[in-house]
Amino acid sequence: MQFRTLFAAAVAAVAAAGFAASAHAGATLDAIKQRGFVQCGVNTGLAGFALPDSQAKWTGFDVDTCRAIAAAVFGDADKVKFTPLTSETRFTALQSGQIDVLIRAATWTLTRSTKLGLDFTATYFYDGQGFLVPKALGITSAKDLNGATICILPGSTSELNLTDWARANKIDFKPVLIEKLEDAEAAFFAGRCDAYTSDASGLAGTRAAKAPKPDDYVILPEIISKEPLSIAVRQGDAQWANVTRWVFNALVQAEESGITSANIDSFADTPDPTIQRLLGKTPGMGEALGLPETWAHDAIKQVGNYGEIFERNLGQKTPLGLPRGENALWTQGGLQYAIPIR
User: Fold this and answer.
1) For 33, which of 5, 84, 145, 189 is 20 to 30 Å away at the CA?
2) Which residues form a coiled coil (predicted)?
3) Taking the model in full, what pTM does it have?
4) Tens-digit pLDDT profile for residues 125-157
């Protein structure tokens, strides 16, 4: 009995030591704090997700997710800088340390997790690949694309998905590979391709922001893939992976709990234990991450909960007009589900 007691105490001591080490062992977070900002990799310019305005101010869903991470780390959502990346350069930029975190339509796949040295920490947007075509072609189904020329970004899952789908459906097509997003969009609208294929949300952004006349183009009904667009960091730094993972979960939990950027301070005296932990009223969550106890409060207050970020950038009142769909909360028929913060 005494041996069991001593053994249990030893296990507890090792676990506590490991917990303390993991909370303070991340080189990435230390480097970010020394530098004074988070370096975030984003799209070169996709409406609704990441797009610079005439003053070079970045806006969009991916941008706001980066800003939430900066708010959690520094208490200031503006302490972030953005690196625009193509499909072919995005992973190299992360691997090389040029950026700290990649939030740029990166689909979580087995080979990317195992061969590229990346950790995917949270799926922030559930998407699927579709096709954009001119209405004038009279095409109503993707299966009518036999013999078509299709614009596509190289180095993307879209390229592989298109090849697999076409083979399975015995469809011949001619790929037009164009590295830069803006060049691919321009080529499609100039008539170089019969269709343009990418994530359906991205097609909605392209049509809304780049089409000469958006009503002249249609997104075909078929979705040919699953595209869990996820936050990516380098493997080997569990602390930084945890920071990005739990900031995102805090945004989702805030929406689940009815907490918004406008009403968050009204929850200061809430008796709800989940909200107390989320907002740092019950301490410990910030310490576990190596962040201030106000980490989640600052992210939500300055950027908003998940639903606010979605509606502001992608929702029904924006040019994209996207429904929540799979990105609704699990309590509303969607897939977004906050992992317990406790």
Assistant:
1) 84
2) none
3) 0.88
4) 999 999 999 999 999 999 999 999 999 999 888
Question: What's the Cα-to-Cα distance from 53 to each of 40, 47, 50, 328, rounded to whole Å?
Answer: 17, 11, 10, 28
Q: Which amino acid is at 180?
A: K
User: Is the model's pLDDT at 169 over the cut of 80?
Assistant: yes
Domain spans of the chain, in order of start: 2-127+228-332, 129-225
CATH architecture of 2-127+228-332: 3-Layer(aba) Sandwich (3.40)
- Write out the CATH class of domain 129-225: alpha beta
In this model, does residue 174 exceed pLDDT 60?
yes
Sign of the C-alpha dihedral computed for residues 31, 33, 34 and 39 taken in this order: positive
Q: What is the pLDDT of residue 314?
A: 97
More confident residue, 198 or 1: 198
